[in-house]
C-alpha cells in the first residue's frame, strides 16, 4: 500500500483503462485471425489478463459461459510449474476438463507468463472452441459418448513453447489426430498471436508508467471490483433460498437427474451449496467443477451488477459447495462433451431460487439450452461436403416490468449471431422453409408480462444421405414462471419426411438420417411468464392477438379476454378484477 | 459563389467561398422541428443571398433525428412466406452478456403489419415459386385500412434477382400511388436478409419525413435565393441532387458528420499529407476516422444505437467509417459508485451547458476543467464567467472526494477525457495494424485543437494540423465534395472459377447504371470517375478484405493482380496470409464520382512579428509541470512560417490550440496551424 499513496488516482484509473483496452485488443485479435466460424461468428472463446497469482484482471468474452475459466487455467499452470520452472517465452496448452480451467476437450486453453525485467508480473491467457480435437464424431462434439477417450485429444497443462521454442512434437500429434488440422492449428497459432499482443501491451505499460505503478494499479483494480460487489451484496435479501430441478437426460437414455441448490446470502458472502444433486452420469452431460464455477459466476454477475468490469475481486464474496463426483463436478473419466447443458441447469437453479426476491435484476425461466444442431451432408450442386454447427435462439422469461425477449440465444451464449438464411442456403445443401416465432396455442408463457417466443427453424434437405444431430435440453422440464406466470414450452424437434410421415418430438438425438426433401423442424421453447395473466391489460391482450402472439382461444381461456378475430375489439370476461 | 450549410444539434453553420477563393462563415441557431428555417436564417445572416449562388450543398440531421426519436411514418413490410419474423428475431445476439433483462431492439414494424406472400427464389436467383399477385393485393388493401404511410418490400435472395421485388413495387404503385414504397434491392444489393430488410424498413420509415423536408427547403430556397445547383450530403462522403435524395433518404443518415472527414482528405491532398487521422471534437462527442493514402474509408457495416451493450439496428448503406465516443467539451465529470473519476458520456449540452456559462449548469465539464487550468480564458466565452462557481463545482463534485485541489481535480478531468479519446484513436490506428507515426493528426471542431496536441504526444504521431475554419470544418468539407454513388453487389465467385468475360460484364453493367444516374443529375460523362473494389476472402472464411482493383477492361493479369493484392492486404490486416489457399469474391463495389470544380485555397502571406500576435501571458496548469507562464497568441495575427516554441496557446474565434513544451507550432502558407514535436 505504500506505493499506492504515492500515485494519484487518475494515473491508476488510466492504467486500469489501458489494461481493459489491452484485454479488448487481445479479444479482437483472436477473432480477426481465426479460420473457424465457431470462433469468428459464434465468438465461442474468451481471452484476458491475470496478475502473477492468476487473479483475473480483465476478460474479453463473446459468451458468458467462459467467465472464470482463465483464472483456473493460470492457477493450474502455477501449480504444475512453480518458481523457476516457468520461464519467459513459455506457453502452456491445457484442455483437460478435470483439471483447473477445463470445460470440454473442444475448448483449448493457452497460458503465457509475462515477465518484465526478469520478474513474473502477469499472465496472458485465452481459451477457444476448436472446430476439431479428434474423437469419435466429426467436429468432436458428441451427444452419445460414454467416456472422455471418445471425445478427442487431451492436453494436460503441458508446454507448447519452451522458452519461446515451439514443441514440434505436440504440433505433429495434433496434425495426425484431428480431422481438419489446418483449422485447429490455425486457431492455435491465432491464440498464440493474441497472447503475444497481451504480453506486448503489458510490457509497454510497464515501460511507460513503471512496473510499480502497474502493480499498484492491478491491486487498485481488484479492490475496486470487490468494493462494488460488496456494495451490491448489501442490497440483496439475506437468508437461505432453495431451488430444485432436473437435467432431462444424459444423451444415452438415462435420466432425468435431480439437481438442487441452497443459496445463503449474508452481509459478506454469497454461498451456493449444490450438495444432494445427482452423481455424475454415464452420458456426456457431466459438467466439470470449473464449468460450475463459471455458471455460478455468470449468474452472480447478473444478480449483483451486470454492467461492471469483470475481475477476480468481484468474485471474492462468492463461495461454492458441491459433492465430489456429482453431475456438476465430474471426475475422470466420465464424458463431458455437452457439459454446457448442466452448466446452464446449475446456474438456472440459483436464478430460480433468487428470481422472486430480486425482480429488478432477474426474470422468469428461459428456454435454457444451447440447442446445438449439427447437420452434415453433401451440397446438391457442388457435391462438396458441408457441416453446419450452430446454436439456436429461443424465448426468455417475462419480468416485473417487461415481456421476455423472443428469439435470442440462451444465457450461456451472448454476442453470438445466427446464420442468415441466405448465407445458409448458399453454403449448405439445404433450403429453409421457415424461420419464425412459435405460436404455442396452449397459453405457454402467459402472464402479466409474457414469456418471449421460441422459434421455429426448418431445414429441408436438398441431397440424400444428410445427418442431423440435435441436442436440446429443457425438453421434459419447462421454463418456469413466476408469481402465477405460466410455464413456457419445451425445446423439441420433428422430422417431416418427404413421404408425409412425421416423426417426433425429440429432445436429444444423434445422427438422424435425412434424404432429399425431408424436413427437420427445430422448435425452441417459449420463456416463462411473470405475474397473473388476468392482470395483463385487456387492450394489450387484444394487441397480442392482433400480432399473432396468442390465439383468440388463448386470450379467452388464459387471460379472460374475448377478442374479435376480425376487428380485434375486446371484452373483459368475468373473473378479471 | 458556393455555399454549404450544416445543421448541428445546437447551431446551423454556413461556410461560403466566392469566385476569388475568399472564404467566409456564419452561425445561427438550429430551429427544430422546422429545420429549414435555421438554414434560411443563416443564409440571411451571412449576406450571401445577395449574390447568385452556383452551388448549394446541405448537410442535415433530419434523417437521424427521425430515427432516434421514432418520429417516422407508420411502416409496413411485405416479405417471403415463412419469414416475417426475420425482422424481430434479428441476429439473436446479446452484447450485454450478464444482463438477463437485456432489451432486445424492437423492430420498426409491428408484427401485424408484416405480411407474407407466396414467392421463393433459391440462392442462385432461380424462381422456385412464382410471386402471388393476389396476396400482394390483399396485403396492400389491409395496409390501407390500417392507415399505413410507407411500405418496405424485402424478399429472400433479391440481391441476386430483384424481379419479384420490382413486380411488387410496380403493383403497389399502380393500386396505391400515394403510399411511399421501398424495395430492399433498390437500397442494397448485399446478402443477409435481416440486415437488408431492416435497411429497407428504415428507408421507408424516414421517406415521408425526408420528402416533406426537402420539398419545403427547396421551395423556400427558390423563393428567397437564386441557386443553380442544389445538393445534399450523403453518408458516403459525396453529394447527390435533392431529387435523388428523396428516393433513398437512408443514404443521408450520417449527412454532416462525414463531411469533416472528407474535408480532411481534401485538405490533406492540398498540403501533401496522404495519411491522416481526422479528429473532430464537438460539444457532446468526439469522432475519428483514418484516411490512408488519401482515401476515405467507406463501408456498409453501419448501425444506429449500437454500442458495447446494445445490438442496435444495421443499415447496409455506404457510410464513412467513423468511431464516435461520448466525450466532448460539454461532457460531465462524475464519480462512479466505487469512487473512480469518469468523464462523459452524459453531456451538459448547450443548455444549461458547462458551469462556466452561468446558465444554471451545476455539473463540472471538460470545458470547465480547461477554463480552471488556464487553457481557456474567461474572455473566450460569450457569457460572463464566474470563475469561483467553476472552481467550487469542481472542488465539491470531484476534488473533495480525492482530497485534492480544484486545479489538480481539473487536470484529472482533462487526463481522463484524453485517455478516453486516446482509446478511440488507438482503435482506428494501432488496433487495425497502422503505425501512428506514419500519420498526421488533423483536428477540428470546437474542441479538436484543445486536446489534439496532448493526444499526439501520447499516440506518437509526428505532426498535428489545425486547419483553417477548424470550428466549422464540416461545412468547409462540404464545399469540397463531389457527387458520389456507391454500388455494392453481392457476387459470390471463387477466383479460380471466375471467367474474364463474366467479371467484365459485371463491371460494365454497374458502370453503365452509374452513368444513367449521373445523367439524371445533369453530370457530364466526361467528369465521371470510377474506383473499383472487390471484397475478398479465403474460401471458408467469414471476414472479407476490401481490395482496390483495376479499372477498365480486365484480362487475366488484372485478375491475378487482385489475388496478389488480396494476399498482401490480408497479411496487413490479419497478420498472416495463406498463399496456397483458394480465394473468393463476396461483393464487388464500384464508387462513382461526378467531379465538380473545387474552389482554390488562397495562399496567405502575413508578415509581422510573433510579438505583435501575442495577446498576453497567462498562467496555465500543465501535467507534471504545475503552473507555467504561457504566452497566448491571436491566430488571426500570426505571421506565416514563424515558429513558436511550446508551451504556448493560440486563440481564435470559437477554438483554442494548446501546445506542450515538447512541441513547436507555425502557420503554413494556407493559414493552417502545423504542430510538430521538437527534435531533441
TrEMBL record, chain A:
One of its GO terms (molecular function) is 5-oxoprolinase (ATP-hydrolyzing) activity. One of its GO terms (biological process) is glutathione metabolic process. GO terms for cellular component: cytosol. Residues 8-533 form the Hydantoinase B/oxoprolinase domain. Coiled coil: none annotated. PANTHER family: 5-OXOPROLINASE RELATED, HYPOTHETICAL 5-OXOPROLINASE (EUROFUNG)-RELATED. This is Hydantoinase B/oxoprolinase family protein. It comes from Psychrobacillus lasiicapitis.
From TrEMBL, chain B:
Transmembrane segments: none annotated. It comes from the Bacteria. Residues 500-670 form the Acetophenone carboxylase-like C-terminal domain. GO terms for biological process: glutathione metabolic process. InterPro entries: ACX-like_C, ATPase_NBD, Hydant_A_N, Hydantoinase_A, Oxoprolinase-like. Pfam families: Hydant_A_C, Hydant_A_N, Hydantoinase_A. Residues 2-175 form the Hydantoinase/oxoprolinase N-terminal domain. GO terms for cellular component: cytosol. One of its GO terms (molecular function) is 5-oxoprolinase (ATP-hydrolyzing) activity. PANTHER family: 5-OXOPROLINASE, 5-OXOPROLINASE RELATED. This is Hydantoinase/oxoprolinase family protein. It comes from Psychrobacillus lasiicapitis. The lineage of its organism: Bacteria, Bacillati, Bacillota, Bacilli, Bacillales.
